[in-house]
Amino acid sequence: MKKSFRVKKNIEFQQVFKKGKSYANRQFVIYVLKKENQGNFRIGLSVSKKIGNAVKRNEIKRYLRQCFHELENEISKGNDYVIIARKPAAEMNFHEVNKSLQHVLKVAKVLKQSRGSNHNKQHLE
Predict the structure, then answer these.
(1) What's the pLDDT score for residue 111?
(2) Which of 9, 100, 114, 115 is the 20 to 30 A CA-CA neighbour of 122?
(3) Contact status, residue 107 vs residue 23, Cβ threshold 8 Å
(4) How many CA atoms does the CB half-sphere of 73 hold within 13 Å?
(5) Given 3-state DSSP classes, what are the helix, strand and coil percentages for the chain, each rounded to the nearest 5?
(6) What confidence score (pLDDT) does residue 125 get?
(7) Which of 30, 46, 45, 54 is nearest to 111 (CA)?
(8) Which residues of the chain fall short of a pLDDT of 70?
(9) What are the beta bridge partners of residue 79?
(10) Stated pTM of the model
């Protein structure tokens, strides 16, 4: 993931926390802040020391970055996202993290409908 796709500075994190909306499930909290004049989305990751040692925290961050990379075309552009990992995330493998993250993104309504579910709706009508 390119550096331009990351929320890095503390002041940027604080802005997302203060002005953004939060959505959560058991494993993750996501803050979403709409940025009108931003061509792509940016993500910031926060994994507390309570979750585990550095190896575990880095693994979770790697998983989250990879999930965003795979969902790049389905995530709403022009937003800053800050993802906070909760304790249960430490016991999850990549596929579980991916599923959980997609769930929170759907709750936040920032994930475009996948082609499969759209296709099914057409058959129901």
Answers:
(1) 85
(2) 100
(3) yes
(4) 3
(5) 45, 20, 30
(6) 43
(7) 30
(8) 1, 113-125
(9) 34
(10) 0.84
> Could you tell me the residue ranges of all domains in the chain?
3-124
Cβ atoms of 67 and 98 closer than 8 Å: yes
C-beta neighbour count of 8 within 10 angstroms:
10
Give the E-state strand segments of the chain in sequence order.
21-24, 28-34, 42-47, 79-85
Long-range contacts of 35-38 (CB under 8 A, 24+ apart): 35/78, 35/79, 35/80, 36/78, 38/77, 38/78, 38/79, 38/80
Task: Give the separation between CA 23 and CA 118, rounded to whole angstroms.
Answer: 24
Helix (H, G, I), strand (E, B) or coil at 111: strand
Nearest by Cα to 106 from 56, 64, 71, 60: 71
Contact 5, 45 (CB under 8 A): no
Tokens 């004049």 map to which residue?
37
Q: Residue 113: what pLDDT?
A: 65
In angstroms and rounded to an integer, the radius of gyration of the C-alpha atoms of the chain is: 15
| CATH number assigned to the domain covering 3-124 | 3.30.230.10
Q: At what angle do helices 94-107 and 54-70 cross, to 10 degrees?
A: 60
